[in-house]
Amino acid sequence: MPLFWVRLILNFISVKIMKLNLKNIVVLISLAILGLIGVQIVWINNAIEVRKSQFDQEVKTSLVVVTQEVPKVIRKNQETKFFQRQKQLNQGVTDINALINAMLDNTPFQQFSDKITKEQLDSLIQAQMKKRGINTPYIFGVFDATGNYLFETDSTTKQYTSQLLSEGINIPVFVDDFMLTQPFISIIFPKKNNFIFRKMWLILSISFLLILAVIYAFYFTVNTIRKQKQLSEIKNDFINNMTHELKTPISTIQLACEALNDADMNSKESHETFVNMIKDENSRLKGLVDTVLKTAILDKGQMKLQREEVDLLEIIHKVKGNFSLQVNQLNGQITLDNELASMPFVGDKQHLTNVFQNLIDNAIKYTTRTPEITISTAKTIDSFLIKVTDNGIGISKENLEKVFEKLYRVPTGDLHNVKGFGLGLNYVKTMIELHGGKIEAKSTKEKGSTFILSLPIVQQ
After folding, report:
1. What is the per-residue DSSP string for 56-68?
2. Which of 2, 342, 414, 441 is deepest in the core (most CB within 10 A)?
3. Structural domain of 436
4. Are 358 and 452 within one domain?
5. 89 in a domain, yes or no?
6. More confident residue, 81 or 430
């Protein structure tokens, strides 16, 4: 029964998520990610605080052991002093200060610094810290109940006295002894945080990497969803455009066939007209199908070029001539700005022809004015440069970066009659690169575009 309810809840959540749009999904995932990161940060902070508490407890334990060793050191010091005084007395040496100190030995009035040296106490502390793996610098001091330092003051102790009294870890030196002013040891660790972080570097690194992984996963997921949405929109546009392009010749062929079957329109002239119409529309259908098939072949990397010696200038002249009639009907012109006698190249003549046809066809289609197209050629040390410039509607900066992507169509504003699949410039770029060249686009909105082709002179 519980498993049934779990599945029901998960199905309900899945259905709700599927109904959300991309913006809501991003917000939902963002909140979840922020929650996970917040929990991780709180956990890390708690882990650090626990480690600090453990550190303080280990230090206190070490100091307790030190206080247990202090009486042993004091007794040893007193025995040493006693034998030294005895030796002096035996030699007839009498020192009034030595007699006074001897009288004060092991009494509440004896100075703490006379019982044990700072170096001896430091040695005891250092041994215990090392035993417990606390290998970070420390500063300690011994104070009486009123906060007076019981050893000779040095620069380091003077600098840290206030911090030792306010923040230091304290423990009485003589727990069981009665003294007028019970001294206590106070110790601080200036690099305590660094030491703790070094001890926790592995778990902190893993936590940090997990947070980065979650953030990257979030970015990757959102970016993938966005790209999938764009691809879906592009695919739908392609299907709609393809359907529209196919319906026109199909409808024309159907009407022509019906006309041929009509006895009233069965004259020789009508027959030839409709047969030619069917032939033209069939060629158009073939061209559409070839375009899609070429794209599929390019995607699979199976395109094989039929390389031969060609003259790029001759190809450009031929393409220019093919479009001359169409441009003249629009009162426009195609200008060839050329200073070269020839442009010998080794490549696929048909595909190179298609490249220039695509560029000039776009220059004609994407303009609201009389088309003015300029083709200029030049030569560098190792390349032929060909520029195709138009006075069309231009391409915005954000769209210019995408014009060579497959199935991408630049928004055409008021040009609703422009047809295409978004395959032309992708085909151009692919062909130029297969020939070892490069292509780039420059454009200014409402002023026109320039496509710059670079093809190597020495073809490998």
Report:
1. HHHHHHHHHHHHH
2. 441
3. 307-456
4. yes
5. yes
6. 430
For residues 191 and 249, membership in a common domain is answered with no
Radius of gyration, alpha carbons of the chain: 46
**Residue-level pLDDT at 450:** 92
Tell me which DSSP letter residue 265 carries: G
Which has more confidence, 107 or 333?
333
Residue 128: pLDDT over 60: yes
Same-domain pairing of 31 and 180 = yes
Q: pLDDT per residue over 356-393, tens digit each?
A: 888 888 888 888 888 899 999 988 888 999 999 999 88
| Residue 2 is assigned to a structural domain of this protein | no
Listed residue (422, 423, 440, 417) closest to 366, CA to CA: 417
Helix residue spans in 107-200 (DSSP H): 112-115, 118-131, 155-167, 192-199
Cβ neighbour number for residue 428 with a 10 Å cutoff:
23
Q: Is 176 exposed, middle or buried (0-12, 13-18, 19+ CB in 10 A)?
A: exposed
Residue 8 counted as domain residue:
no
Same domain flag for 313 and 398: yes
Instruction: Calculate the alpha carbon distances from 108 to 65, 111, 389 in Å.
Output: 23, 8, 103
Tokens standing for 274? 């409709």
pLDDT single digits (tens) 86-99: 665 555 545 555 54
Q: Are residues 206 and 130 in the same domain?
A: no
Q: Classify residue 452 by burial, with Cβ atoms within 10 Å: 0-12, 13-18, 19+.
A: middle
Q: Are 448 and 390 in contact (CB under 8 A)?
A: yes
Query: How many of the other CB atoms lie within 10 Å of CB of 313?
Result: 19
CB 445 within 8 Å of CB 394: yes
